[in-house]
Amino acid sequence: MADFDFRNIGDLDDIKRQYDEFGYIIIRNIFNKDEISRIRNAFDNPNGVLKHQYKIPSGGGRDVILSLWNNPGNDVTGMVARSEKIVNICENLLGGDIFHFHAKAILKLPSIGGQFVWHQDYGYWYKQGFLYPDMMTVSIAVDENTKENGCLQVLRGSHMCGRLSHGFYEGEQMADPERVSKLKNKLKLEYVVLNQGDAVFFHSNLLHNSGNNMSSKRRLAYAIAYSAAYNDSVAEHPFAHYNPIEKVTDSAIAECENEEDLTGKVFLNPKDDITVKSKLAS
Known about the structure:
Layout: E1 3-5, H1 12-22, E2 24-28, H2 33-44, E3 54-59, E4 62-70, H3 76-82, H4 84-94, E5 98-108, E6 116-119, H5 121-125, E7 135-141, E8 152-155, E9 166-169, E10 172-175, H6 177-184, E11 189-192, E12 199-203, E13 208-210, E14 219-228, H7 251-255, E15 266-267, E16 279-280
Parallel strand pairs: 1-2
Antiparallel strand pairs: 2-12, 3-4, 3-16, 4-5, 4-15, 5-14, 6-13, 7-12, 7-14, 8-11, 8-13, 9-10
């Protein structure tokens, strides 16, 4: 597993080599206790980003709760997305300037939280007008991510297979199941188990899924999508166009006390999302 610790992260070129080979890297302890406490409090605030939540049906009567927005804004979640440590690593992995495509909270409730089927993010984003797969996601463990509560699973190296065709399964889009089955016989399946404050950085063509939450603990992840600056969408889409990131120092995360002023963020109306079939969260 491509695993690093932020406290002694070392050479970014080595991180990029492993990212290019495996399609993902894990960075442990990228957020310290004060930072992850601030981040968790922001998501727990009833007047924060999760007040815009909606549900995605995932089969078997289970749902996943999402809240999705563009533009980082100036709240705690925005400080995370604009922080030097996140943006600098993504710039290194994508080879230059980047822009913030969107961010989302992904919540699986205890015992009833649903799954995500096998897919590639670029399988969605291709349909939103991005010509190149030079895009990535940073998924931050706001809560502990375990096998029991539905952590991310990846097929190591599957980003090298190119974009697969995707079709709807329940409320989600799924990569070609026959092709995925064959790839599972060739590539190593990894469970991305994360502690609070860890993050996984992964390529837009990496095949991944996540299981149902079978535990008594919730699973909350904060996923931020970035694109190479030159990869502006050619489609009419409110989220998919280049807007420079105004970086902030890492200290801005713990120092930020804004959890409720979401000025600048534009939250997605699930009715306008062509990549999922949603239902409003109650």
